[in-house]
Every structure is written in structure tokens, then in C-alpha cells.
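Researcher: Following up on the earlier apo prediction. This time include the ligand. It's fe (ii) ion, with the SMILES given after the sequence.
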Amino acid sequence: MTTLTEADALEGLRDALGLLKDREQVAERLLDSSAKHSFDPDKELDWDAPFEDGKWFWPPELVSLYDTPMWQRMSEEQRILLSQHEAAALASLGIWFELILMQLLVRHIYDKAATSAHVRYALTEIEDECRHSKMFARLISRGETPWYPVSPAHQHLGRLFKTISTTPGSFTATLLGEEVLDWMQRLTFPDERVQPLIRGVTRIHVVEEARHVRYAREELRRQMVTAPKWSQEFTRVTSGEFARVFSKAFVNPEVYTNVGLDKREALAQVQASGHRQEIMQTGAKRLTDFLDDIGVLRGVGRRLWRSSGLLA
Ligand SMILES: [Fe+2]
Ligand SMILES: [Fe+2]
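Model: Understood. Below is the ligand-bound prediction.
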């Protein structure tokens, strides 16, 4: 557990004093990078190229059932089909996150001067997310895989959250939605075993997402210094709860049924898989280290994070 030392407190004070200047500088740099490296997926990617036989739609090690007894019994063809359905389920989940994030960003800038770089960057990020959601939707349609919505309970929870969450709560959730998937996508786009279209989609997403992670991290770091104590505590608890929802919603269980597997058995094997647990914790590590550093992973929040399985 992180303790607040005198040095931390002094650093916090300096942070608070330089807050607005720092916020504008970060946003200016991100606007600059957006102007140089933004992509139109409709033009950038070859959507009509046929899929290549024997290539994966997600690296096998990142497929939920990898290395389980069930996986051992599956044919190579069925494993690849599962990778395709999991990619479609993750793209559906990505759209759900992005719709929530867009609303959080609109709420975040609602009472700020639109002339500031901080607000102009938020608007730019919303543009990025609009392109991403359309890109993910096109990918799902292109593979003729189903649309995989989150469960009705998570759908309603998301509706409530995006309407009432506090600013630090919003940015914590943003990072959770972005960083674990980002970690997986960084392994996917350079992987030559993977379909070129999937590699193209993940490459675009990784490049543009790096800015979003930076924006959310910098804002959250400032917020955890300046937000009222109750809001900081509330952030710890809601972020832990969000981590639990996230790890549950991560792969839609319907994927197993749709590739001809027993859903209950598949879920039980994923739950018991040491490999899967390691993948999820490694994927979340960069984020949990950061959250620990800025004081989010304390008390009840930390216990909730542990029970989500994302924190060792
Ligand atoms: Fe995105
Ligand atoms: Fe994003």
C-alpha cells in the first residue's frame, strides 16, 4: 500500500500549483500528435481482401480457453473460429466502452471553455472514438460474426455510471477500458500469424489510443491531488467495482455456444485457467502500477480490485 510521505505531499502541492498550465501543455502536445498521426480506417484498410486460411483472428495465447483441457480437445479449425468470435466479442465490448467514454468526455468538458486546448483535445478524442466504433462494427460485419452485447445488467450499470460518475471515477474507468485491451492489441498487430485486417485494425487503434491513455492518466493524476477527499475515496471504491464488472464482461460467454462448445464447461475452465489469470493480470499490470502510484488502490478499493482477478 502506498503511504503519503512528506515528499509526496510536496510533490502534490507542486502538481496542484502547475495544474492548469500543465493540463494545457499536455493537450497541445496531444493535438499536435493527432494532427500528424490519425487514420481513416475506411480508406486505410483493405476491407475486401479475403481472409487467409489458417490465420488467427486473435493471437491464440490471448484466446480465453488457451491451454485448458477443452482447448487440447479442440481442432485447429475450431480454435481459429473461437479466436474469430472472441475478436468480435472484444470489438463489441470496445464499442460499448467507447460509447460510455464519449459521453464521459462530453460531460467532462460541458462547463469548460471550448477555446482551451484541454477541451479541443477532448473533442478530438471523441472524433477518434467515433472512427474506432465504426471500424469495430465494420470488422464484426466483415467476419459475419454476431454482435455481442454485454449482459442487460452491465448495460444498465453502464447507463447509470456514464450519467452520474465523478470526474476521477470517469477517468479511472476510461483507463481500465483502454489499457488492458491496448496491451493485447500491442501483441496482436505485429503478429504474423494473425489476419492482415485484424492487424490493421489493432495497429490503428494502438497508435490513436496511446494519446487517450496519456490524456486520461494525466487528468486522473491531477484529479487525485485536487478532488475532495470523499471523491477520492468514492473513486477507489467505484474503480474496484468497475474492475469486477470489466473482468466479468471481458469475453461474452455466447462465443462458446456459437463455436459449438458447452458454455458452462468453457466458463468453468477459463475460471480455473492459470494461464488466463496470468494474461489478465499481466495485461492490467501497467494500469494497476499506475493506479497504485497515484493512490487509487487503497482500502476497500484494493480488495475489490483483488477480487476482480486483475490484481495479484
Ligand atoms: Fe478507441
Ligand atoms: Fe480511446
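Model: The chain is about 75% helix and 0% strand.
Researcher: Noted. I'll compare it with the apo version next.
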